[in-house]
Amino acid sequence: MEVVLLLVSILLLFGQYDCALPIVYLADSCNSTVQASNGGFIEPDKRLLYNSNLDCSTVLTADPGNRFLLRFYRFNLEEPVNGVCVDHLTIYDGLDRLSPLSAALCGRTKVADIVSSNNSINFGFMTDGDGSTNGFEIFYSVFTDAPCTVDQFACNNSRCIDAALKCDSYNMCGDNSDETDCDVVVIEDTGLSAAAIAGIVAGSLCLVLLIMAVIRAIIHRYQSNQLLKQLLDEMSKQPTTNEYSDKDFWGDKKPIEE
């Protein structure tokens, strides 16, 4: 019960930092157009390892006048074979594959931020039939160029984002100006806020406590079963009949009859 209460307390404490940004999975949105939110993530698949033999073209689009900022938190595709990418991601500006914003990206690499010139961006993801890795995680944010409206936050780099996105623990502007003077600190290398990392640590600690509690319960039950078995063994060794005969009890003399 104490462990359950601890888990509930941790969830209540850190639940306020769960931004729950939407995730677009390229395998699920293959050859289709997805309406973008103000910010979210792009990943190859819901599974740990992406599928083979994919040839997907997924378009992410926003309202006219908006542009996209892409920031790569993780990128790990299959290594090139003879210098040629066998699994690769190529990002294009616009609805089609005519204006590439990147080369064919593959292997394990650090990719610089990418900015679109219009309100649509195309993700071309291709894989072969042999081998896969844990893929990539790309964060995107939607912005307009200055001047900003009253409903927008003015970034220091002359970009404008939705005012509700300020201090949400994600670097929506690209220069982190939307996360300054906030209680939540963004950890750039991981894409997680300090509070989110603390929540993960606390959750891991709670999991350890749960495992310890289960192990303790198993040990206690085992010891109880062993004690019960020992008691039953001792009882089985005890005599079930009276060891004393009349002679032993009364001696050689017979009791005096009245």
From TrEMBL:
Q: Does the keyword Cell membrane apply?
A: no
Stretches for region Disordered: 239-258
What CDD domains does the entry give? Answer: CUB, LDLa
Q: Does the keyword Transmembrane apply?
A: yes
Where in this chain does the record put each CUB domain? 30-143
A Pfam family the protein falls into: CUB
Query: Can you tell which superkingdom this protein's organism belongs to?
Result: Eukaryota
Disulfide-bonded cysteines: C148-C160, C155-C173, C167-C182
InterPro entries annotated for this entry?
CUB_dom, LDL_receptor-like_sf, LDrepeatLR_classA_rpt, LRAD2/Mig-13-like, Sperma_CUB_dom_sf
SUPFAM superfamilies, sorted = LDL receptor-like module (SSF57424), Spermadhesin, CUB domain (SSF49854)
Segment forming the signal sequence? 1-20
Transmembrane spans: 192-219
Print the keywords alphabetically: Disulfide bond, Membrane, Signal, Transmembrane, Transmembrane helix
What residue spans carry the Basic and acidic residues bias annotation?
Answer: 244-258
Tell me the protein's name.
Answer: CUB domain-containing protein
